[in-house]
Write a sequence for this structure.
């Protein structure tokens, strides 16, 4: 029993109610779960361009990258993003490389510039032009994530270094003549008028003949595509935090709640909820936040009690979850088998639940309680299913559908190719594209005008991809048809009717801003080319590079 209690002691939540706003949720800043400032072991941190990297320098760069990510993406890396520890390590070393290069080039920034940039960043966190104070930023964002005001100041200063470095090294790309810019603008913005005829595979489904032998052969040929990954099923008890709201309201009613609310408002003022238009509205939101905090704390009390009872039963068995749930009148649900990539289908799994589920074993069948989406889950392993390829009889309907669609797509490709073979003669004989389509039993459509800069063409639906259509259009001469363009849906043929240049007045009006944008793009391209070369030369003696070399 001692071992079981110790094993699960870390998850026991402290039930503490405080009259403070835990976080400014509009910042989207949560605790970083990966590579905290003090969480990396000492050791060899390698060299950059022959200069040793100290642990202190590495950790400073790592913390600066966390802040860079926060200000660019609204959250810390590792919280909800797909940034791995290796990604963070790589970014820290790249940052160290850039700082070193800036120092070698004698790039420096004054204290006034650092203060101005810091103020601009803090204003970006507020609403309606309000500036978040450094004190509030430190208390609400930096300290909970093991960061300091010094980390923030270093980040701002070094970011200014890096920006100047980008401008310096990207300078060769900034030389863009008006004539060159006009040509690029014309190329990107001139519009094509075109017609398209689709050859969707769905039109040929009825023509496909399916036989048992054909289905069996198709299954044999594509068995690997039907392999199921490792899966698990879990038994779980879900605690809905909203069920504790009334209890929380009653508990607050026994206190001088209004005084608590006034205290919070006095401490944080409008910054607590900048979207609130009046003090009364801000206090209402503070009230709701405090009630929600207490409801969560009350839910955790019940979860602690339930989970403790489950974990202390010996011998350890997944069935203990059901035993305690019956005693407490709680419902145990069971998920269908799910993979690590998909997660359970019965509910939206909070962060960490799927990973925890795949870490369970018959000897250690329980995971720590998991909070997310207004729910707290206590889970137990129900079944582990190995990777397997189900037999044909189990998959026959799916295999038949896949075979039918593949055959139908081949029929669509054949029809489209045959159409193109006859189309050239029809166009040469004076027949229009639309007439040739109708004569062949196909229905052409006129597309809205589009350019290389067009991002979406809703008229395409699911029958073609906009990038594939642009590729076909801008590689086909005006008055001619493209080759048959196959795709997953079947394919299409495009006829280019006209190419409309940008109007001179539009070009004249847009060109100044476009030149600036093009210069910035070219600067970034030049800098990125330099950075790729510098990283390949100067970051070879780092732990990350050594691991990559050893893995090859």
């Amino acid at each position: 029993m001692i071992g079981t209690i110790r094993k699960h002691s870390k998850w026991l939540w402290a039930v503490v109610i405080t009259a403070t706003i835990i976080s400014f949720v509009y910042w989207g800043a949560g605790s970083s779960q990966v590579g905290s400032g003090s969480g990396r072991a000492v050791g060899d941190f390698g060299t950059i361009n022959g200069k040793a990297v100290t642990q202190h320098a590495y950790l400073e760069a790592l913390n600066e990258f966390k802040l860079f990510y926060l200000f660019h993406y609204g959250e810390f890396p590792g919280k909800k993003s797909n940034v791995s520890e290796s990604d963070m390590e790589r970014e820290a070393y790249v940052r160290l490389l850039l700082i070193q290069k800036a120092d070698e080039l004698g790039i420096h920034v004054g204290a006034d510039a650092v203060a101005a940039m810091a103020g601009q960043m803090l204003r970006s966190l507020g609403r309606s032009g309000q500036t978040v104070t450094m004190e509030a930023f430190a208390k609400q964002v930096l300290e909970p994530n093991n960061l300091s005001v010094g980390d923030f100041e270093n980040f701002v200063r070094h970011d200014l270094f890096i920006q100047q470095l980008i401008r310096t090294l990207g300078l060769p790309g900034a030389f863009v003549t008006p004539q060159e810019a006009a040509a690029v603008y014309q190329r990107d913005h001139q519009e094509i008028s075109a017609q398209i005829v689709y050859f969707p595979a769905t039109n040929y489904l009825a023509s496909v003949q399916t036989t048992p032998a054909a289905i069996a052969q198709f299954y044999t040929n594509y068995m690997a595509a039907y392999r199921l990954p490792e899966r698990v099923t879990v038994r779980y008890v879900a605690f809905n935090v909203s069920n504790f709201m009334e209890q929380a309201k009653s508990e607050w009613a026994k206190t001088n709640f209004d005084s608590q609310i006034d205290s919070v408002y006095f401490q944080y003022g409008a910054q607590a909820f900048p979207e609130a238009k009046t003090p009364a509205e801000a206090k209402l939101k503070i009230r709701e936040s405090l009630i929600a905090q207490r409801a969560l704390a009350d839910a955790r009390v019940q979860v602690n009690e339930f989970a403790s009872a489950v974990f202390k039963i010996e011998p350890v068995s997944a069935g203990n979850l059901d035993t305690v749930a019956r005693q407490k009148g709680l419902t145990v649900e069971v998920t269908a088998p799910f993979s690590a990539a998909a997660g359970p289908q019965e509910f939206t799994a909070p962060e960490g639940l799927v990973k925890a589920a795949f870490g369970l074993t018959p000897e250690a069948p329980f995971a720590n309680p998991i909070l997310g989406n207004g729910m707290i889950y206590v889970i137990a392993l129900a079944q582990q299913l190995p990777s397997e390829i189900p037999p044909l009889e189990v998959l026959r309907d799916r295999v038949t559908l896949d075979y039918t669609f593949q055959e139908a797509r081949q029929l669509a490709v054949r029809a489209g190719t045959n159409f193109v073979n006859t189309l050239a003669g029809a166009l040469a004989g004076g027949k229009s594209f639309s007439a040739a389509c109708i004569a062949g039993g196909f229905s052409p459509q006129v597309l809205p005008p589009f350019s290389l800069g067009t991002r979406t063409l809703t008229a395409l639906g699911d029958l073609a991809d906009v990038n594939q259509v642009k590729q076909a259009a801008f590689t086909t001469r005006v008055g001619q048809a493209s080759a048959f363009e196959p795709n997953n849906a079947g394919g299409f043929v495009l006829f280019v009717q006209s190419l409309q240049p940008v109007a001179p007045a539009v070009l004249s009006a847009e060109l100044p801003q476009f030149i600036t944008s093009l210069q910035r793009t070219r600067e970034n391209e030049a800098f990125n080319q330099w950075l790729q070369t510098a990283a390949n030369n100067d970051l070879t003696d780092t732990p990350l590079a050594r691991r990559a070399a050893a893995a090859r």
About this structure: The longest strand covers residues 375-385. Residues 9 and 308 are 9 Å apart (CA to CA).
